[in-house]
Recover the amino acids of this structure.
């Protein structure tokens, strides 16, 4: 089955081409007046293969004519974090939602990639490209990699190369149309080799860095001392304190392995235990009297769902402290801990796994977090 969802990076070649038109050309007049409804109608009257219509329309037309997609169900427009980027995105949305467009999509969504602008190279590299990875990975998680194709023709040149890496990491075909060519081609795979064991080892640190733009070095100190991971992070000093952020390649490293883990989790997780080996969750009277709302129900659901868990037992309740809900590794106990909070109270539970092997525990940790708290 062919893909039916298209992710398209968006640049501003449409506006660049319009600027080259003579002053009284109706298309240029409409654009200069900000009459984007009229501009869209004028664009729809043109052949979509005309260079005037820009890289995005030309390349999408070629992609659809060549039969790379099964049907035109969804189009995601990834636009830059600029005024022009937003304007072009809105015009393309109207263009591909129009009933008079032979290549109409059933649903068109604009995704603004925060930080993807060329005013500051540091922001572009550490925030813009990183958010591009996160946005594409988010679409892949919700819609499925087999259903998606990427058109990386529009936008900044750095996006094109990086989109090729994203496609390879998430197993999605990436298309590109060279400026002087009349048809689109599929980009060949680029050299990409990531170490699964390293990702598993530093999974918790990667989650922290992926979630936040920047964190204090002391919070993720373990990842800093691993020289192999240096190309994936950036360290900077702010007011005499050192901070760390995950760069775009680091974000891709993280997202790529989350994707691969989900595909191969049955080979990484411990085998299901026999019913006689398992024990019902042990919940103390103090816990039952002070537990956060929903905690007991959640504990029982996890125990019922995940047959590799021996048992679950509470060991901590704080009626006055909210925390983020998650599974973590308690390194002192070498066990998985569930942290559950209702926004006011927090309880913690030991999640007993038969194996004490660190790799197996980390695999279970990834599975639990991405099953319940993704």
């Amino acid at each position: 089955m062919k893909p039916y969802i298209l992710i398209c990076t968006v640049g501003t070649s449409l506006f660049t081409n319009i600027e080259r038109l003579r002053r009284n050309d109706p298309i240029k007049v409409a654009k200069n007046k900000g009459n984007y409804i009229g501009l869209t109608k004028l664009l729809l009257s043109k052949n979509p293969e005309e260079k005037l219509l820009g890289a995005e329309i030309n390349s999408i037309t070629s992609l659809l004519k060549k039969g790379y997609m099964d049907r035109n169900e969804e189009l995601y427009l990834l636009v830059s974090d600029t005024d022009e980027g937003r304007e072009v995105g809105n015009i393309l949305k109207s263009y591909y939602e129009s009933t008079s467009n032979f290549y109409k999509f059933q649903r068109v969504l604009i995704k603004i990639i925060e930080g993807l602008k060329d005013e500051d190279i540091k922001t572009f590299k550490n925030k813009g490209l990183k958010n591009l990875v996160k946005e594409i990975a988010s679409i892949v998680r919700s819609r499925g990699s087999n259903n998606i194709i990427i058109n990386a023709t529009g936008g900044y040149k750095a996006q094109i190369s990086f989109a090729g890496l994203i496609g390879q990491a998430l197993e999605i075909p990436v298309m590109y149309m060279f400026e002087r060519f009349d048809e689109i081609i599929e980009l060949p795979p680029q050299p990409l080799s990531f170490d699964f064991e390293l990702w598993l080892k530093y999974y918790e640190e990667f989650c922290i860095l992926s979630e936040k733009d920047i964190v204090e070095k002391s919070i993720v100190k373990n990842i800093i001392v691993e020289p192999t991971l240096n190309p994936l992070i950036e360290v900077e000093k702010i007011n005499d304190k050192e901070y760390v952020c995950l760069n775009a390649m680091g974000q891709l490293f993280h997202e790529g392995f989350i994707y691969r883990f989900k595909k191969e989790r049955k080979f990484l997780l411990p085998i299901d235990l026999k019913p006689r080996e398992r024990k019902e969750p042990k919940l103390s009277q103090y816990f039952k009297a002070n537990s956060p709302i929903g905690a007991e129900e959640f504990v029982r659901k996890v125990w019922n769902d995940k047959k590799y868990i021996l048992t679950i037992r509470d060991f901590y309740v704080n009626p006055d402290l909210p925390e983020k809900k998650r599974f973590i590794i308690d390194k002192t106990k070498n066990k998985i801990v569930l942290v559950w909070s209702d926004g006011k109270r927090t309880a913690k539970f030991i999640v007993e796994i038969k194996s004490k092997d660190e790799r197996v525990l980390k695999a279970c940790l990834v599975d639990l977090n991405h099953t319940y708290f993704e």
User: Anything to note?
Assistant: The chain has a mean pLDDT of 91. The radius of gyration is 25 Å. Residues 275-357 form one domain. The chain is about 45% helix and 20% strand.
